[in-house]
Amino acid sequence: MSTDIDITPLLEWLSDGRKPLIIAGPCSAETEEQVLRTAHEVAKIPQVQVFRSGIWKPRTRPGDFEGVGAEGLRWLQKVKEETGLKVTVEVAHPKHVEEALKHGIDILWLGARTVANPFSVQEIAEAIKGCDIPVMVKNPVSPDLKLWIGAVERIHSAGVRKLIAIHRGFHYFKRSPFRNAPMWEIPIELKRLAPSLPIITDPSHICGKRELISTIAQKALDFEMDGLMIETHVNPEKALTDAAQQLPPDELKKMLDSFVIRDKRVDVEFFDTLEELRTEIDKLDGELLQILANRLKIIDEIGEFKKENSITILQMKRWAGIVKDRLAQGTHLGLRKDFLKELLALIHKESIQRQSDIFNDPDIKG
Ligand code: PEP
Ligand code: MN
């Protein structure tokens, strides 16, 4: 998506002028009573516009609760009639799309596991073709922006213009306080590539535990995300899925009331200060790039020297010494150790690449 795709603005088809868009409801529909009680509670919260619930649940292992299936769609119809909220469910298969449409579901969403598989996304796109149904596309499990964009494009190619992307965090191999690392740079890059595509954040699946949700939700609003999807259950501790991350409706209300919605417009003085700081950043980035270019030029010279003198490219002892020294210097300057390690590794990789190019280039004398 190098150029922006045409998308119907959210305010034209969903919100009655209210922003951010708030979607709430249980991870899974369990019983008619649980669904309706939760729906009536969340319907009392003025910010909530859409009720969510999983009917078909993608579970890691067979035998876990896999959702109530199509029966739950009737409960959602009741939610619509009794509360006036719009309703949304996850679809993972063309059959799910067909059932959901038959039951008047207002919005469909594709889950993280489905989006990871272009075959499934394509099948769903074909089932949706010709129906004017809004679709939300979660990010795939792995931090792969192209895969996310690919799924949005497939649904868009099916004629869907009422589209929303959902940022639900990414699988991350390192230890982290989150169930799925937020990696904000990915949804922000999506925003840059497709400015008209609304993006909402699902802090429940990012956090994995209730206590962290409000901080991540506030952060999403500070990053100008267009809304939030928050798992809500009348009795979270007893929930059959994702018990640790669901909020009871009263806590959801407290949290929504506590959000600071920062103004995008800023006064002139603030803007001047921001511009000054940004100019400074531009200047420093220029210097940083020049320094990197100078460093790599010297690396090339060393490469040629090594080639002339038949010395191997990789001098492990020297590199280990550099890492130790630069980590000490950098942390002393207040830079994070993890960041420094990644930065040094990247510079080293590029240096080795350039020197091996020199070794392989027959035109270079020596
Ligand atoms: C869900 O929203 O309940 C769900 C299964 O989410 P995800 O696809 O993000 O894991
Ligand atoms: Mn869930």
Description:
With 366 residues, the chain is of the alpha/beta class. It folds into two domains: 10-258, Alpha-Beta Barrel (TIM Barrel), CATH 3.20.20.70; 268-359, Chorismate mutase (Chorismate Mutase Domain, subunit A, Up-down Bundle), CATH 1.20.59.10. Helices cover 51% and strands 10% of the residues. The protein contains 14 helices and eight strands. The protein has helices at 10-13, 32-43, 71-83, 94-102, 112-115, 118-128, 145-157, 185-193, 203-207, 210-222, 249-258, 268-308, 316-332, 337-360, and strands at residues 21-25, 48-52, 86-90, 107-110, 135-138, 163-167, 199-201, 227-231. Strands 1-2-3-4-5-6-7-8 form an eight-stranded parallel barrel, surrounded by five helices. Helix 2 runs parallel beside helix 3, helix 6 (118-128) packs parallel to helix 7 and helix 13 (316-332) packs antiparallel against helix 14 (337-360). The longest helix is centred in the C-terminal third of the chain and has 41 residues, at 268-308. It is elongated, with a radius of gyration of 25 Å. The mean pLDDT is 92. The site of phosphoenolpyruvate has 9 residues, from helix 5.
CATH fold-level topology of the largest domain: TIM Barrel
Number of domains: 2
State the secondary-structure class.
alpha/beta
CATH architecture assignment of the largest domain: Alpha-Beta Barrel
**At the fourth CATH level, what is the homologous superfamily of the largest domain?**
Aldolase class I
Mean pLDDT: 92
